[in-house]
């Protein structure tokens, strides 16, 4: 897991190793510069330093302890079969690909998965999800562009119940430029889902593009205001040196980071482990 995580965070970790002065102890001033270069928000970089013990040289164990406090938000546990996941996010964030990665992850654990193409706003989204379903050999419920997305969600969940599926993963539209329409659509999908299965969707997950760094926080807040989000998946971390933005995302949203995407392959999605993430960051900072 550590090698997989290090590979995915390579550009972020290189920010620490390349910027760190050679043969010097990590002082608070040096630490602040390193954190900011990795796109840790300024306020959080200041907080981290403030909560460290009052000495100039930073101890690795102290830093790890403080950093881990930013990821204390628990993933709510719900027992349901099928477990219905509603996937949110703007176009281009990697939403459809992440759905495929989730399906592959569950399938590799011998779980049955069905996909629902409820992003009926774009014909391309339906076709892309259908192609992934065919590639992964998982069933999909899809209609035509312009069809009622809530009806697709209802049919997906109903089919999942009838087939005794473990997971139903439902795609949704992501046109944030028209928040009023999107809010109405997502609310309807959520409401109709609960008619197909009590308490569905059980988890509403927001997909965020990791290459946007701290700028993704505003986008996440907008979605969280539209429909209460339960957790976040960060994509494309392998393509950015802004991995430090995860601190801001977790703190500002007060939501758990569930998974991180670290590559283009269907297998490049790993469950987020705060301790492993922080330890990997600290290894890069304190590496001699």
Automatic annotation (TrEMBL):
Domain AAA+ ATPase residue range list: 81-261
SUPFAM superfamilies membership: Domain of the SRP/SRP receptor G-proteins, P-loop containing nucleoside triphosphate hydrolases
UniProt-listed Enzyme Commission number(s): 3.6.5.4
Keyword Cell inner membrane: no
One Pfam family matching this protein: SRP54
Ranges where the SRP54-type proteins GTP-binding domain occurs: 82-283
Keywords: Cell membrane, Cytoplasm, GTP-binding, Hydrolase, Membrane, Nucleotide-binding, Receptor
Membrane topology, as annotated: Peripheral membrane protein
Record CDD domains: FtsY (cd17874)
InterPro entries, sorted: AAA+_ATPase (IPR003593), P-loop_NTPase (IPR027417), SR_rcpt_FtsY (IPR004390), SRP/SRP_N (IPR036225), SRP54_GTPase_dom (IPR000897), SRP54_N_sf (IPR042101)
Claim: Nucleotide-binding is one of the keywords in the record: yes
Binding site for GTP: 89-96, 171-175, 235-238
Subcellular location: Cell membrane; Cytoplasm
Annotated catalysed reactions: GTP + H2O = GDP + phosphate + H(+)
Assembly mode: Part of the signal recognition particle protein translocation system, which is composed of SRP and FtsY.
HAMAP family xref list: FtsY
PANTHER family per UniProt: SIGNAL RECOGNITION PARTICLE RECEPTOR SUBUNIT ALPHA
Family: Belongs to the GTP-binding SRP family. FtsY subfamily.
Role noted for this protein: Involved in targeting and insertion of nascent membrane proteins into the cytoplasmic membrane. Acts as a receptor for the complex formed by the signal recognition particle (SRP) and the ribosome-nascent chain (RNC).
Name of the protein in question: Signal recognition particle receptor FtsY
């Amino acid at each position: 897991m550590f090698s997989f995580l290090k590979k995915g965070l390579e550009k972020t970790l290189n920010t620490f190793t390349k910027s760190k002065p050679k043969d010097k102890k990590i002082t608070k001033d040096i630490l602040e510069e390193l954190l900011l270069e990795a796109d840790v928000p300024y306020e959080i970089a200041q907080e981290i330093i403030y909560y460290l013990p009052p000495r100039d040289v930073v101890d690795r164990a102290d830093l790890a302890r403080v950093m881990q406090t930013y990821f204390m938000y628990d993933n709510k546990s719900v027992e349901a079969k099928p477990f219905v996941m509603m996937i949110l996010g703007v176009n281009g964030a990697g939403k459809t690909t992440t759905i495929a990665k989730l399906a592959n992850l569950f399938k590799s654990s011998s779980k049955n998965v069905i996909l629902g193409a409820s992003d009926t706003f774009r014909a391309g989204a339906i076709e892309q999800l259908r192609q992934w379903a065919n590639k992964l050999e998982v069933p999909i419920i899809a209609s035509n562009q312009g069809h009622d997305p809530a009806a697709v969600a209802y049919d997906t969940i109903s089919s999942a119940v009838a087939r005794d599926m473990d997971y139903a993963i439902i795609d949704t539209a992501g046109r944030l430029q028209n928040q009023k329409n999107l809010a109405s659509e997502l609310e309807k999908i959520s409401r109709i889902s609960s008619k197909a299965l009590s308490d569905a969707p059980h988890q509403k997950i927001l997909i965020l593009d990791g290459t946007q760094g701290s700028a993704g926080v505003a986008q996440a807040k907008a979605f969280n205001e539209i429909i209460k989000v339960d957790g976040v998946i960060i994509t494309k971390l392998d393509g950015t040196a802004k991995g430090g933005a995860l601190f801001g995302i977790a703190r500002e949203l007060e939501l758990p980071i569930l998974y991180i995407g670290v590559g283009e392959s269907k297998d490049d999605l790993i469950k987020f482990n705060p301790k492993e993430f922080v330890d990997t960051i600290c290894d890069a900072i304190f590496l001699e």
